[in-house]
């Protein structure tokens, strides 16, 4: 009995020694695989949280690193021995899938740093790699063979590495096909990885067993160089973004300086202006042409589009309006002159405009517009829409077809000039705020001061589009009260 017990104990010791020896042989792969898997998952998480420039590159780089790490772990017998049975069962399938698809992840990651034909080549490599992976997985599922197409996969990986090495090694090619401002670190990492891969692939067939740690070290250097290149790209994008934001702040300040800083001081007329750009700068514009305390012209204009291009054309109106000041009392002449001054420079852009001339001495107003929303007039419990439109600026430079409407002025009259940013915002169902709701707000607040009416209208617009993260269009609203 003691002999049998001694033999059993000896057997257990032998098994334990064998397991320990196996663990020692696989410990490097297990540690490196875990590190690469963690780095990959961390990179994907950071890319997801960041949500700005370079996200796709770092996400793909993280996927590539995680795939490499997972592939190392699924190949280790010790890891499989302590894994659940379901994981042991699918480990061959997972490993086969990772082996084939890792080339696809590598091609797509490097593509984010590439330009021109290099991007097309890398996309083609990714598509070919995907086709090989589908074929390889199909063979595995049908025959159980894990390496039926592995030679083609290895050939594609060698071709990809060779082309990338040439691109990063030749300065002229790097300048032409890479987005990186500096290629030194990437070139060094790629060359070291290529040399390590060449050495391993030549040494092992000749019987020289190179340490597995060289594979992991070479891949780590290559991965680090790619990550460094990606950070260069991100920092360059951030610098460009900061420069653009700085220029936009300057443009916003200039545009504010162009707009009137206050309404003119007039007899029997009070004007309140509300101006809310959608972005830093806007395509809306308004101005006053005060002749004296009894006569003033009020202009509102809206350039098609948004942002910087629209703002530049809006600033041109400020220059053009100086040429029509002598005919401020004639809305037709004002709009005709503005159209002729601007049309040759608009280059496909269109501008709507409305002009209201107020003469409190004669107690009348003159109104004309160029494709603009109607003028609203509140008088003694009634809201009227006054439309007197001609062509938009930029359609026909020679037109003078801007009809003028004469409006008697009475004490208590209220006029509203506005841009389509007041009526066109949509709610979650795609329904526009519309003229009806605008007019309802005006009716409900007809006895309130102009400033309060404007605030009520802006609040109604905000409530109408509760799910919109930002304003949908530039908003300009001028309220003119005859007192």
Explain what this protein looks like in three dimensions.
The protein is elongated and about 105 Å long. Helix 2 packs antiparallel against helix 9 (212-258) and helix 5 (116-143) packs antiparallel against helix 6. It is 59% helix and 15% strand. It contains 13 helices and eleven strands. 35% of the residues are buried. The chain folds into two domains: 2-244, Up-down Bundle (Rhopdopsin 7-helix transmembrane proteins), CATH 1.20.1070; 262-482, PPM-type phosphatase domain (Phosphatase 2c, domain 1, 4-Layer Sandwich), CATH 3.60.40. The strands form two sheets. Strands 2, 3, 4, 5, 8 and 9 form a six-stranded mixed β-sheet that branches. A five-stranded antiparallel β-sheet has the order 1-11-10-6-7, with helices on one face. With 483 residues, it is an alpha+beta fold.
């Amino acid at each position: 009995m003691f002999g049998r017990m001694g033999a059993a104990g000896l057997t257990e010791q032998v098994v334990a020694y064998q397991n320990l020896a196996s663990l020692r042989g696989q410990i490097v792969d297990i540690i490196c695989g875990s590190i690469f898997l963690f780095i990959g998952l961390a990179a994907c998480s950071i890319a997801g949280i960041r949500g700005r420039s370079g996200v796709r590159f770092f996400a793909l780089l993280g996927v590539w690193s995680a795939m490499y790490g997972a592939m190392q772990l699924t190949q280790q017998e010790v890891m499989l021995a302590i894994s659940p049975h379901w994981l042991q069962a699918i480990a061959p399938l997972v490993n086969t899938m990772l082996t084939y698809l890792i080339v696809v992840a590598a091609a797509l990651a490097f593509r984010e740093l590439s330009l021109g034909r290099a991007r097309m080549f890398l996309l083609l490599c990714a598509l070919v790699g995907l086709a090989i992976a589908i074929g390889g997985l199909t063979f595995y599922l049908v025959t159980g063979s894990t390496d039926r197409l592995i030679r083609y996969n290895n050939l594609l990986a060698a071709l990809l590495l060779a082309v990338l090495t040439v691109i990063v090694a030749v300065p002229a090619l790097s300048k032409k096909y890479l987005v990186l401002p500096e290629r030194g670190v990437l070139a060094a990492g790629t060359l070291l990885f290529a040399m390590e891969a060449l050495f391993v692939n030549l040494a092992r067939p000749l019987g020289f067993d190179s340490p597995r740690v060289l594979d992991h070290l070479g891949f780590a250097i290559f991965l680090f160089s790619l990550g460094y290149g990606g950070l260069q790209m991100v920092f360059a994008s951030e610098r460009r973004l900061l420069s653009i934001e700085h220029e936009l702040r300057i443009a916003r300040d200039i545009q504010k300086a162009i707009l009137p800083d206050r309404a003119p001081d007039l007899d029997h007329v009070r004007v309140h202006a509300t101006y809310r750009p959608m972005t830093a700068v806007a395509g809306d514009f308004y101005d006053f042409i005060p002749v004296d305390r009894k006569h003033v012209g009020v202009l509102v204009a809206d350039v098609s589009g948004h942002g910087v291009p629209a703002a530049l054309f809006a600033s041109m109106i400020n220059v053009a309006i100086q040429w029509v000041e002598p005919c401020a009392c004639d809305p037709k002449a004002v709009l005709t002159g503005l159209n002729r001054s601007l049309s040759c420079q608009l280059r496909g852009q269109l501008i709507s405009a409305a002009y209201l001339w107020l003469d409190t001495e004669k107690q009348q107003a003159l109104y004309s517009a160029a494709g603009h929303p109607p003028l609203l007039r509140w008088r003694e419990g009634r809201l009227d829409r006054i439309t007197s439109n001609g062509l938009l600026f930029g359609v026909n430079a020679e037109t003078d077809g801007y009809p003028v409407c004469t409006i008697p002025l009475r004490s208590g009259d209220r006029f509203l000039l506005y841009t389509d940013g007041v009526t066109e915002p949509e709610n979650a169902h795609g329904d526009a705020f519309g003229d009806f709701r605008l007019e309802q707000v005006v009716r409900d607040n007809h006895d309130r001061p102009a400033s309060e009416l404007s605030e009520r209208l802006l609040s109604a617009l905000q409530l109408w589009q509760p799910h919109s993260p930002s304003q949908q269009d530039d908003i300009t609203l001028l309220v003119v009260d005859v007192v």
